[in-house]
Amino acid sequence: MRAAVIEPDGSLSVRGIDDPTPGPRDLVLRVTGCGVCGSDVAARGAMPAGTVMGHELAGEVVAAGAEVAGTWADGSRAAVLPVFACLNCDACRTGHVAHCTNAALVGLGGGHGGFAEYVRVSADLAFPLPDSVPDAHGPLVEPFAVGLHVARAAEIVGGDRVLVIGAGAVGLTTATWARQMGAGSIVVSDPAPARRTTAETFEVDATHDPGAGPVEGSFDVVVDCAGKPGLLDVASAAASTHGRIVIAGVCYEPDTYVPLVPMLKELSLRFAIYYQPGEFQTVVDAFASGAVDPALLLTRTAPLSELEALLTRPHPDDLKVVVDPTL
């Protein structure tokens, strides 16, 4: 099969590698699309030679392991929670499969990912896609599951005033679920004019340019989806007394903050990453019912040959580019 492979010198080449074969509880999918994630850009340099990246994936079943063949027919379509997990440890039993003691992250060093024609995945963590969900939207289940996990971590309830910092995919999917959970108002803050314009299509109540000064008002929930030093202080200043802050942006640099402000306000601080199987099913159901429109997130579809450019020179205005290995 054709796949985008990281070579020993760190370069990416599209070349032939062996087709995957399923284990007893695995599926092999013909990949119909795999989204390019910011974590792919950040993690690429840490991936060993031979890695095939890509974790926001969906596809069509072409082979099933002996224990699941009766459940998954050839031609079935599935979105994938991109983890191999034991399903028996405490983390797995409580739904936190990405925190499994033996977790292997698909496309991030724990197995070949979706930037290939075919991929092996866990049948236990694959979710059937109804006919009403087109192939192009299958890879968007994963990023919307991220946003749902973040919104749930914030414990959003009806009437909450919500500030989302960062209008990338995580920020806008979080805003989407905040609306679904009954938020009274949603403000999205981002320095990029194009991203603020895009945020307006996600039914937010207002956008904010942080370059123009602090956001007005106070918020029951503040979610950092940008992952930059200094944003914890920004979030603390914007939060109301007894407000809730969730950190969902991945920050790779040391950060300091002034603890007096969150202490005086008695703020709660949580971190959120990954997702749970139930959240994937919720997203699939929302796509199928029309409650959530995933098309708002999709910037464009690209061939596998463009992946090198997408990872090394990502366009700042791209929200979500999906790679179609069949192109």
Question: What does this molecule look like?
Answer:
The protein has helices at 38-43, 90-93, 141-153, 169-180, 193-199, 231-238, 260-265, 277-289, 307-312, and strands spanning 2-6, 12-16, 26-35, 56-64, 77-80, 83-84, 104-105, 118-122, 126-128, 161-165, 185-189, 206-208, 219-224, 239-247, 268-271, 300-303, 321-324. The chain is globular. It has 2 domains: 2-144 and 275-324, Quinone Oxidoreductase, Chain A, domain 1 (Alpha-Beta Complex), CATH 3.90.180; 155-271, Rossmann fold (3-Layer(aba) Sandwich). It is an alpha/beta fold and 327 residues long. The strands form 4 sheets. Strands 3, 4, 5, 8, 9, 16 and 17 form a 7-stranded mixed beta sheet that branches. It has a 6-stranded parallel beta sheet with strand order 12-11-10-13-14-15, with helices on both faces. The mean pLDDT is 96. Helix 3 (141-153) crosses helix 4 and helix 3 (141-153) crosses helix 8 (277-289). The relative contact order is 0.16. The two termini are 13 Å apart. The longest helix is centred in the middle third of the chain and has 13 residues, at 141-153. It is built from 9 helices and 17 strands.
**Which descriptor suits the 3D outline?**
globular
Provide the CATH topology of the largest domain.
Quinone Oxidoreductase, Chain A, domain 1
Give the total of beta strands.
Answer: 17
Q: What is the mean predicted local confidence, pLDDT?
A: 96
The SSE string, one letter per element, is EEEHEEEHEEEHEHEHEEHEHEHEHE
Task: Please give the count of helices.
Answer: 9
Biggest β-sheet strands, sense, barrel: 7 strands, mixed
Beta-strand content estimate = 25-35%
The whole-angstrom Rg is 20 Å
